[in-house]
Design brief:
The complex is a heterodimer of chains A (about 450) and B (about 190).
Chain A (H helix, E strand, L loop, with lengths): L8 H9 L2 H23 L4 H17 L1 H14 L3 E5 L2 H14 L4 E4 L3 H5 L2 H7 L3 E4 L2 H8 L16 H12 L8 H18 L2 E4 L3 E3 L5 E5 L3 H8 L2 E7 L3 E2 L4 H13 L7 E5 L7 E7 L3 H5 L15 H5 L1 H6 L10 H11 L16 H5 L6 H14 L5 H15 L1 H17 L25 H8 L3
Parallel strand pairs in A: 1-10, 2-3, 2-4, 4-7, 5-8, 7-10
Antiparallel strand pairs in A: 5-6, 6-9
Helix pairs in contact in A: 2-12, 3-12, 9-10, 16-18, 19-20
Chain B lengths: L2 H12 L19 H11 L3 E5 L3 H12 L3 E4 L23 E7 L2 E3 L5 E4 H4 L4 H4 L2 E7 L3 E2 L2 H8 L6 E5 L4 E2 L7 E2 L6 E7 L1
The chains are: A alpha/beta (about 450), B alpha/beta (about 190).
């Protein structure tokens, strides 16, 4: 994405970390959301059973995607919906544009869809003369700021209310200095009502699509997807092919998990089931691959396709909370973004699997039990093998390999390390060693464990 | 080869072997008093619950508002609004000035206070979203404990559009401060009858 100017996670995180107060605030806010998730989860007696069930349903989806997608397509067509297939982002964007051109519509509104972010649809449509207004409040805010969302559920979680007030002052004419969330949201309500009432086409995302019935479900708290969809003559719903569920009853499992995992709510305010177009309305679904079948071919990584986009892994991640969503320079940030992105472009996103402590908290909160931290670890190995790791990291790994392969070298390196730390600490506490950026290296021990053992227990 | 064929061929080549999968979802333990749970949860998500013997009082109150010039729409015969207009046939955009809408819900769910409504109860899909305030009338006997029970109820029902509504429209996008009335209704009142 252009705004990131080709920078990688460590550099972007460093920029975010320049403002210590903001980092603390960001960290605490997301941890608060994580705690709300915990309370909601503990209220469900069978939470773990629910996670296991969701995981099994999604396994079944991946194993039978070929037939489920065709079932879904046939039912949707029977319901009066036009179904399109797109191999990649470019084709997806072309399809959306051609539907709008055919309908002679150049002003549209869009509810939240991470897929359209992944495909950079807004930029494409803008270049082709179509004006898009995002109607989720958080997305509208980052759109006004000309930034991408920094979180899949909470798009402007990185912004302070004063900054939002400034944006609204500039673009929506609120009084200078107004930063009260109630007042700002009220202005946004009026502004976006006008958008809903005057724009004749809407793009929505899809949370779940049901093979059995051909319907799709869109979840929002604001009601923006519904306001857009029920007023527009043309409704285009864009979905990744992995969003399929076999049966309607499976929605019970995923809807119980989704909002509780995301924000700690028992369910989103609206869970809307679109089965047929409204009288006189044209409804389209665009089924998008864009690398998903490639990810399906990787046994170590295909589980990432089970994701239901709740964002729980981001809220809990110690790296995400302290580096901010933009440091991932990808539509989907955080741990799940870091295992999805290398599939899209291994070179471009080779840094992301390393932006993790591998603590495993992400896997522990994931409602569909994706082994996120294991996949991060496995991506690191793939990336190094394919030659996409940074030169410094590869060199370090080679030194490490040499040192750990030979007991003599290992013993000597330990001695040398202790000597350096004790006698010339500036040799390690300097800008060349990234570990010493926010910390000093610890005081060296007098001896290694091996030396201590030899002296005390060795005889 | 079309994109459809290309994608389907790639899926067929790459999808893992099917694993034995339990189709039966265990129905969980349920709250002892679903009405009580429904009321409590609705309060926590910003809604209001009114237990009433009948809808006479609501009807009188809304007719008063209607006489005062506010646009009130009721989809249910028990709440008849004098001088009701032809809103069912209107362009949905013209519902933009509806102050209060009264609709019936098929059933509610106590674990999350969501109410299931479908197109035939709404007549206009946009109605429960575009109004400033929403009132849902629900039979007290029509409350099920969990989402699993909800989909057992819905089963194979045919509808063009259906939605679960849980509380008023809301956002917390500005510094996680909860604001009721993002785009849809600023308030939701559920009238429990029976």
């Amino acid at each position: 994405m252009a705004v990131f100017e080709g920078k990688k996670h460590p550099d972007l995180a460093q920029t975010f970390n320049a403002d210590v107060e903001r980092v603390d605030w960001h960290d605490e806010t997301l941890w608060w959301v994580r705690k709300k998730r915990d309370r909601a989860a503990y209220n469900i007696l069978d939470w773990e059973l629910l996670r296991n069930t969701a995981s099994a349903i999604k396994d079944d989806v991946l194993s039978n995607l070929h037939s489920y997608l065709q079932h879904f397509e046939a039912k949707a067509i029977k319901n009066g919906i036009t179904v399109h297939w797109a191999s990649d982002a470019a084709e997806h964007n072309q399809i959306v544009h051609s539907i709008l051109t055919e309908s002679k519509i150049s002003l549209i509104n869009k509810s939240k869809s991470m897929l359209t972010e992944e495909c950079h649809l807004n930029e494409f449509l803008k270049k082709n003369g179509v004006n898009v207004i995002d109607t989720d409040l958080g997305e509208r805010i980052v759109q006004l700021a000309e930034e991408p969302p920094s979180h899949i559920v909470l798009p402007c979680i990185h912004k302070k209310k004063e900054e939002i007030g400034e944006l609204f002052h500039e673009h929506l004419g609120t009084p200078k200095g107004e930063s009260n969330p109630q007042a700002l949201a009220a202005v946004a309500r009026t502004h976006l009502r006008e958008v809903f009432l005057t724009r004749n086409a809407v793009i929505t995302g899809v949370n779940f699509a049901i093979a059995e019935t051909g319907e799709f479900v869109v979840c929002t708290n604001e009601g923006n997807a519904d306001m857009g969809a029920h007023l527009a003559d043309v409704h285009i719903a864009c979905m990744g092919i992995e969003k399929i569920l076999p049966k309607r009853k499976h929605l019970a499992v995923v809807l119980r998990l989704l909002a509780r995992s995301a924000t700690g709510q028992p369910i989103t305010t609206y869970s809307s089931h679109f089965a047929k177009p409204r009288g006189g309305q044209h409804m389209h679904i665009v089924l998008v691959d864009n690398g998903r079948t490639r990810q399906l071919s990787r046994p170590d990584f295909r589980n990432s396709l089970k994701c239901i986009r709740c964002g729980a892994c981001m809220n809990t991640c110690p790296v995400y909370r302290r580096s901010g969503g933009h440091s991932y320079h990808n539509a989907i940030a955080g741990p799940i973004g870091s295992i999805l992105a290398p599939n899209l472009d291994m070179k471009e996103y080779s840094d992301l699997p390393f932006a993790s402590t591998l603590c495993g908290s992400c896997s522990n909160v994931c409602p569909v039990k994706i082994d996120i931290h294991t996949q991060l670890y496995k991506w690191r190995q793939v990336i190094v093998k394919e030659g996409y790791s940074t030169k410094g990291k590869s060199a370090g790994m080679n030194v490490m390999n040499f040192t750990l392969s030979s007991p003599n070298v290992y013993n000597m390196a330990g001695k040398a390390g202790r000597w350096f730390l004790k006698n010339v600490p500036f040799a390690v506490n300097n800008p060349l060693n990234p570990w010493s950026k926010q910390r000093d290296m610890p005081a060296p021990p007098e001896q290694s464990f091996k030396e201590w053992y030899k002296r005390n227990r060795g005889k | 080869m079309s994109s459809r064929e290309k994608i389907l061929a790639a899926i067929l080549a790459n999808q893992p072997a099917s694993q034995p999968y339990l189709d039966e979802i265990k129905t969980p333990e349920t709250a002892a008093d679903v009405v009580e749970e429904f009321k409590i949860v609705l309060g926590t998500i910003g809604g209001t619950c009114c237990e009433v013997a009948d809808l006479n009082e609501l009807s009188v109150e809304l007719n008063k508002k209607s006489s005062a010039g506010e646009r009130i729409i009721s989809t249910i015969p028990e709440v008849a609004i004098g001088g009701n207009d032809n809103w069912r046939e209107q362009d949905p955009h013209l519902l933009e000035n509806v102050e209060v809408a009264v609709i019936r819900g098929h059933f509610g769910i106590s674990e999350n206070s969501a109410v299931w409504v479908t197109e035939e109860l709404l007549h206009q899909r946009v109605l429960p979203f575009i109004c400033q305030h929403l009132a849902i009338v629900l039979d007290k006997k029509e409350i099920v404990p969990t989402m699993h029970h909800a989909y057992e109820r819905i089963a194979q029902a045919e509808y063009g559009f259906g939605t679960f509504i849980a509380g008023p429209s809301k956002t917390a996008d500005i510094e996680q401060s909860l604001v009721l009335g993002a785009h849809g209704p600023k308030s939701l009142t559920v009238y429990l009858v029976g």
